[in-house]
Amino acid sequence: MTTQSAGARADLPKVSYIKGIDVWMATCLIFVFAALIEFACVNVHSRVEKRRRESSKGSMTVAQLSDNGNNVDSKLLEQKSSFKDSLGGFKTSRSKARTIDRVSRVAVPGAFLVFNIVYWCVYIYWSPDPSDVA
């Protein structure tokens, strides 16, 4: 995006005000950056479940290996399972990731469509006052 923006501006005359191509390129860059942020959020939320399962699996195997008749290990497992249940289970982070992904599938193209409609209507139909042109 940066290379395309620089290439587009290289062919145009240098002026002190913002041109239409600058608005277009800046908005496209914002949409690309927002898509990367959305991807990172979905990726983090979907991997939380896997990390939680691995950490709880590790703690369960340690508790099961030290099966020497102590009630402390079983109490520890009960506390961890109740903590897991209080968080809503492992599926909450995965469902958050899916919700973010579903909303983004509609919201991002919709927002880009709205931007296109507004941008092109302003660009095509707006005419500056003669007094504004120096």
List the helices and strands and how they pair.
Blueprint: H1 2-10, H2 20-65, H3 71-86, H4 91-125
Helix pairs in contact: 1-2, 2-3, 2-4
How many structural domains can be distinguished in the coordinates?
Answer: 1
- The end-to-end distance, rounded to whole angstroms, is 32 Å
Supply the CATH class.
Mainly Alpha
Q: What's the rounded overall pLDDT mean?
A: 77
Tell the overall outline: elongated
Any idea what the CATH superfamily is called? Neurotransmitter-gated ion-channel transmembrane domain
CATH architectural label: Up-down Bundle
Radius of gyration, CA atoms, in whole angstroms: 27 Å
How many β-strands, per DSSP? 0
Instruction: Note the total helix count.
Output: 4
**What is the helix fraction of residues, given as a range?**
over 70%
Class based on secondary structure composition and strand pairing: mainly alpha
Sheet-strand content, in percent, reads under 5%
Runs with pLDDT <50, length 5+? none
Major β-sheet profile: none
SSE order, one letter for each helix or strand = HHHH
CATH topology: Methane Monooxygenase Hydroxylase, Chain G, domain 1
